[in-house]
Amino acid sequence: MDLPLSLLEMGCSGRFELITHPLPGQPLPPHSTLPHGLPPTSLNLETEVEKQFLRDPAWLPIHDTDFAFQRFLKVTQREFNVDSLLNCAQSSLHSGLSVVRDPTTGMLLGFTEVPLENTGLSAKNSLSLQRQPGPPSESLRGSNTNYPFLPGGMEELSLDQIKKKSELEEDIDFEKDLIRVPPGLKAGMDFTDKDAKMAKPEVNLMSLLSTFDDIIDLQAEAEEKEEGEGAGETPKLPRTNSLEDFGIKDAVSSSTPSEKAKDDKSKPKVKQEENKKWAIPVDIASPCEDFHKRIPNPAFTWPFELDVFQKQAVLRLEAHDSVFVAAHTSAGKTVVAEYAIALSQKHMTRTIYTSPIKALSNQKFRDFKSTFGDVGLLTGDVQLSPESSCLIMTTEILRSMLYNGSEVIRDLEWVIFDEVHYINDAERGVVWEEVLIMLPDHVSIILLSATVPNALEFSEWIGRIKKKHIYVISTMKRPVPLEHHLYTGNSTKTQKEMFLLLDAAGNFLTKGYYAAVDAKKERTSKHAQSFGSKNTSQNTTASQDRSVWLSLLHFLSQRQQTPVVAFTFSRTRCDDNARSLDSMDMTTSIEKAEIHSFFQKSLTRLRGGDRQLPQILIMRDLLKRGIAVHHSGILPILKEVIEMLFSRGLVKVLFATETFAMGVNMPARTVVFDSIRKHDGTGFRNLLPGEYIQMAGRAGRRGLDATGTVIILCKAGVHEMADLHVMMLGKPTILQSQFRLTYTMILNLLRVEALRVTDMMRRSFSENHRDTQSQEKRISQLKQTLSTLPPLDTHDQLSDLMPYYRTVTELRTTTEALQRAILESMSGLKALSVGRVVVVNNKQHLNALGVILQVSNDSVNRTFTSLIICEKGNEEGEGKGNAVAALPHLYNTALFIPEGPCSHTVQKLKFQDITGITVKTLKVIPDRIIDNYNKRQQPRFRHDPPGQAISTASQELLRLAEANSGGLATLDPVNDLQLKSVDVVEDSMRLRVLKESLQDFTCIHSPTFAEQFARVTERMSVQEELDRLLFLVSDQSLSLLPEYHQRIKVLQSLQYVDSSGAVQLKGRVACQISSHELLLTELLFENALSPLAPEESAALLSCLVFTQKTQVEPHITNTLQEGIDRVLSVAKRIGELQRECGIPQTAEEFVGQFKFGLTEVVYCWARGMPFAEIAQLTDVQEGTVVRCIQRLDEVLKMVRQAARIVGDSVLGSKMEKASLAIRRDIVFVAGEVKNTNSAPTSFYVPT
Which of 489, 565, 740, 1009 would disulfide-bridge 495, Cβ 3.0–4.6 Å? Predict the structure, then answer.
């Protein structure tokens, strides 16, 4: 039976009404009313109250009606108490109790009240470590309303802060304002001048202060440590045991204070020079004999003897110094980290160990957990025992803890940065720099890195920004030396063709290289004889690959050189190679049983359906035969199983991509390179030396192998010798700054008044070249010089001296610019050919005519050999041509005519010496002139008459000069040389104007003009250098400053910050989000996620974590498609706004980084579809899908936090549901880090 029922949605409030009595013959009403339903209805309150309280007898008690009536009156006639709405927390106590004890017996005598300092400080208003701890719930991650702790090295005060006086300070005149009679006393001191009995040099405070520059230096250290706290107390001088420390005694007793002052001034300079070097290289060549004497009871001991570099590092840690340890993989850098953890456990403090890769974090957690026990793990999706003394985390989490003022930072003694060379990563390198800059002063830093060429420079930078010494310990020694071979075999017959190319001592053997080339050539020529030659390409077919691998692996297993790691730079190639080895079996039956049981045990945590995934079945089959694959497309749980089996030596051949070398510290006996070319996102290139060393370094297990073997396959042909040489023996990549501004960083720093973004930029490694100290020193020297220069005379005739100087300077720069343009043009060079008459001006010649004889071929420093006329006796240039004196008359165009007999000289002129290219040319015989001139430079022929060619040319030049004494017509760059570029045209017009204006100045007629002009020149050169240095020291010279202003403009347009730079609500939300913060915040505030169901919002947000291209077009529901369009339109809007504000990224590039290839997969997963079916929906590999969903969970958590800040609890709970929907089965089983009892046994055997 069909009931005529219908639901009618009432407005937007989510209320529904059931309609049961439709009018006969009328269609049923629509399910929802017009666009947004009916307006929300609300019953009249009076009738509601009346109905509930007065008419409804159930509410009235049966017996005590009066009481009920009183109650009703109470409700209706309530008195309003507005004050109850204003709740003020009690202010903290300003004093506490302290115990008084008898100093000898220690008996309790009583209590005394002591005032407490800094009671008003909290995480919301102070950067100080003295502030009160926040609530326990925020102790681990902090809160985005907290201030961070003051970063180390940021204590210095700005000039404005020093100038501002607090209420406590006042100006005291030490001559007149001193009180003569102390308060409460009748008589006082008599300060009137009496006749001095001894003529001591007069000492007053000012003379003392001026004598000692170093007191100012000392003050700076003791100066108020706390920038964020208001009261700038008067700076205290550090305590000293006697006046001698300040040298005051010297100044008082010395008969000539000025000499002493000189000594005193020179002392601090020496001291400053010593302090200049922050990075201290540690010598590890000499053995550390007294190690056990110096550390009688170490915090941690190992079953083997430490290397020298490890001992040196441990000694530095005991002294609580920061260290940078650069050593090859497997040299034992972990020892340093272990000792630091043990030390912090001994000191009851905490250590944070950060690594760039989650896999590395998980591995270290397993290792350290078995060693120390008290270890916690924090990654985006896992939080295990966060109260431990040693916390392992990714660098991003440490960054957010620092910005959010986590309480963990208080107890922190060490931060260990592993794999520091990751700072070169374009995407994430900036995080390292931020963390290093933000770490407070009390935290010491341990940096572990592969060998890098500029470890000293990097440490110097850290030392300078943290104001502490960094000890640099680097070792090039490998515990297990490597031998590098080329392999050309591809069949059973040729399987032994392996040629040593680089021996364990590091010698490059060309003999081995040529042998490999011959072996390859012989085979190719045989092949060509029988089948005809076809062009050999770099790419080989799958069957050729297979035969190479089979022959190599047979050969290696015969020589017992397994386990092998085969590095292949493509995931599909990894899989294909492993699958092609179906005939290989490299394990014994005992090993097979062990692998089987371990594999089954590990998979018990998976659901039944998930155990039958194709990838798991294939891998199980491969593993039984001792073969495995490791890359980002493999399921995380399988990767962990493979890593553990590999570390037990059960996996004999592992096909891996480069990430295995980066993230997992598991050595093998042999490393094989499938190819030495890789694709780096833009194109194919050879491996860099650093990458090659990192991967090759996995060969050779300490304590098990005498040498490690590295093999490069020559499948198509032998690689170029030069390429191999660079790759094996080249310098590894230097550490370079990848510092860039992110919106999160800007907003996090703007939240806190005491920290400025420019401070962060100035301290970044990219600005490391700024040597502010020496520049400041030079600035004070220049200021000093300026003050000692004689004053300028700018009266009467000389009143326009400064404008004249400026005009002349502009003329000079314009002329130089024009000259450069002429020299760089073809027509200019044509004009400056042999025979051209030119006007020469340099230290020796002033407007002299010359003729070009020869032009050099060097395009960089081109010279023109010319014959120039000069005075008799000025041929060598010792004449009176004083450059400075010549300057003012530089623009006098009158040509030089010798007063006495005319002589000549042949000189190589630089382009700067030629000030005019005239329209005249002369016929000359250059070779004869030059030969004749050179001959007459020899002493025997010095007095010979000049040759015919020279006489003719010089007579011709003299005739030209006399005929045009006012100046010869020169070639015009625009009209004659046809240079039509805008700059040249503008410069030549400007030049004309300037030259004409020179006539109008009166100062040139003054008798003292030359002297005064020289003074101006000297003063202005000092002033210009001073201005340049002041600019370099200021924020204006920061390379990122323009971008900072552009980004601030974007934030202001989107209302994340207001015009004064205060962070608004939107900005606070964006602080919570670590990547794509603008897009997510905009979506939140536009309510784009509200209409979507939890699984749809999860699917939509997958575009933020998925970065690959997919070939499969996803099938999407309409609501999702609308959501995608909305995300793209928001992204486009942000991209266009950034472009308008001047950020170079185009809107298309900005929108292009969001890829929606996994939306369908995530949608189906969140709705409960099994993983096996999901894998069919896309061509993306299973491991990548799992990793994206795990990262998506982190994004959902961030959005949940952000929604809470906005107060949108509905969205918050929706995100929680979405998070729960995707956290299931195989995707999150890998998140549980293995229980430590199955941790691999280490290969590290005591030698």
Answer: 489
Complete domains list, the chain, with CATH: 279-475 (3.40.50.300), 482-526+541-729 (3.40.50.300), 832-873+891-972 (2.40.30), 1053-1227 (1.10.3380.30)
1163 phi, psi to nearest 5 deg: -60, -45
Distance of CA 434 to the CA centre of its chain: 7
Count of Cβ atoms closer than 10 Å to residue 22 Cβ: 13
Show the tokens assigned to 1016: 């101006």
3-state helix, strand, coil in the chain (%, to 5): 45, 10, 40
pLDDT score of 1158 more than 90? no
Q: Are the CB atoms for 970 and 841 separated by under 8 Å?
A: no
pLDDT tens digits, 243-294: 334 333 333 333 333 443 444 444 444 444 444 688 888 888 888 788 888 8
Given a cut of 80, whether residue 659 has pLDDT beyond it is no
Summarize the confidence of residues 992-1010 as an average pLDDT. Answer: 79
Cα–Cα dist 311/305, whole Å? 9
Identify whether the C-beta of residue 127 lies closer than 8 Å to the C-beta of residue 228: yes
Q: Which amino acid is at 1209?
A: S
User: Residue 249: its pLDDT value, please?
Assistant: 35
Tokens of 606: 């998976």
Alpha-carbon dihedral angle through residues 144, 145, 146, 151, given to the nearest 10 degrees: 70
Mean pLDDT highest for which of 3-12, 441-450, 714-723, 902-911?
Answer: 441-450
Which residue is it, tokens 């107390």? 233
- DSSP symbol at 851: E
317 or 1109: which leads in pLDDT = 317
Could you give the 3-state DSSP secondary structure of residue 412?
A: strand
In tens, the pLDDT along 820-834 reads 787 777 777 788 888
Q: Beta partners for 384? A: 377
Over residues 304-314, mean pLDDT: 88
| Torsion angle (degrees, nearest 10) of CA 952, 956, 962, 967 | -140
1133 CB-contact burial (10 Å; exposed 0-12 / middle 13-18 / buried 19+) = middle
The whole-angstrom separation of Cα 403 and Cα 120 is: 21
pLDDT digits (tens, 9 = 90+) for 1039-1096: 888 888 888 889 999 988 988 888 888 888 888 887 888 888 988 888 888 888 888 8
- Which amino acid, residue 735? L
Distance (Å, whole) CA 691 – CA 726: 12
DSSP conformation class of 669: S
Of residues 714, 705, 642, the one with CA closest to residue 668: 705
Cβ(585)–Cβ(628) under 8 Å? no
Please state, in angstroms and rounded to a whole number, the distance separating the CA atoms of residues 247 and 260: 9
Task: Give ∠ CA 214-217-222 in degrees, rounded to 5.
Answer: 130
Q: Write the DSSP string, 1089-1126.
A: STTS-HHHHHHHHGGGT--S--SSPPP--HHHHHHHHH
**What is the helix (H) or strand (E) element at residue 749, kind and residue range?**
helix 743-750
Collapsing DSSP to helix, strand or coil, 641 comes out as helix
Residue-wise pLDDT tens digits, 904-961: 888 888 877 887 788 888 888 888 888 888 888 888 887 788 888 888 888 888 888 8
Determine the Cα–Cα distance for residues 674 and 685; give it in Å rounded to an integer: 14
DSSP-derived 3-state class of residue 771: coil
> How does DSSP assign 937-991, residue by residue?
TSGGGTTSPPPHHHHHHHHHHHHHHHHTTT---B--TTTTS----HHHHHHHHHH
Sheet holding 498-502, edge to edge: 498-502, 482-487, 708-713, 670-673, 564-567, 653-656, 627-630
328, 478 Cβ separation under 8 angstroms: yes
The listed range with the strongest mean pLDDT (375-384, 992-1001, 1118-1127) is 1118-1127
- In angstroms, the CA 546 to CA 579 distance is 10
Q: Answer whether 16's CB lies under 8 Å from 6's CB.
A: no
564-567 and 670-673 beta bridge pairing: parallel
